[in-house]
Each structure stands twice: as C-alpha cells, then as structure tokens.
Design brief:
This protein has helices spanning 2-25, 29-33, 62-72, 74-85, 100-121, and strands spanning 35-43, 49-57, 92-97. It has 133 residues and is of the alpha+beta class.
C-alpha cells in the first residue's frame, strides 16, 4: 500500500516539474507554437518508466509537431527531473499524445447534433413530457 502512494506522489511531482519545464525550460519552437498541457502521468511501480500524456491545442499538424519536439527534448527533461527530484534513478520519459479531449469534444458535438435534430422533428427531449394544445 505504501508503495502505491509513493508512485502516486512521484507522478504528481513529475507532472509539476514537467509543467514548469514546458513554461520555462523547453525552448523548442515546435513545442512553443501550440498550447501544450499535461493531462496525466503514469509511473511504473518500479519507478523506472514514466509516460507523460499531453494534450496540444491546435489544428492541422500542430499536435504532431509538438509531440515530435517533446520527444526530442525527452533526454533534457529526464536530466532536469533527475536534478530537481534528486531520485536515485530517474525514470525513462516517454511523451504520448492524449486524444481524450478531442474524443470528448466530438462526442459532445454529436450529442448536440442529435438534440437539435430531435427539436427540429418536434420529438420530446429524453425524459421530458411533450404537451400539445
């Protein structure tokens, strides 16, 4: 049980430090073009590997460019984490593009579209009661 709390604490520290590096440390143009945010950090139980899920606000090729910039800066990020966290072994850092926000937005737009189609047809809303005069 204590091991799980330690992994969660290390993940929270990594998230905080990498967020700071995104603002002040990484100078790659590809990363600074789009708005990059960290959505989640997964650390392995042995603290040797770390997946950092990022979301990039932008359209077209911006997310892939930002991810390429982050992947090229992974060694720098690992070095900075080692200096800042003072761990015996710094985990290997892997950046992964998180598409959860995009998927959530598309589901919401589909739901809104269905609702507007229902209203156009005059069907009652889900769970609602239709009154006629």
């Amino acid at each position: 049980m204590a091991q799980g709390r330690r992994v969660e604490r290390v993940a929270a520290l990594i998230r905080r430090e990498v967020s700071e590096l995104l603002v002040n440390g990484i100078k790659d143009e590809r990363v600074s073009q789009g708005m990059v945010s960290i959505t989640a950090v997964e650390v392995a139980g042995d603290l040797q590997h770390c997946k950092i899920f990022v979301s990039v606000y932008g359209s077209g090729d911006a997310p892939q460019q930002a991810l390429a910039g982050l992947r090229s800066a992974a060694a720098y990020v690992k070095g900075e984490l080692g200096r800042r966290l003072k761990m015996r072994r710094t985990p290997e850092v892997v950046f992964v593009l998180d598409r959860g926000l995009e998927q959530g937005t598309s589901v919401l737009s589909l739901l809104n579209k269905l609702e507007s189609e229902r209203q156009d047809k005059g069907e009652p809303a889900e769970g609602g009661v239709a009154f006629s005069d």
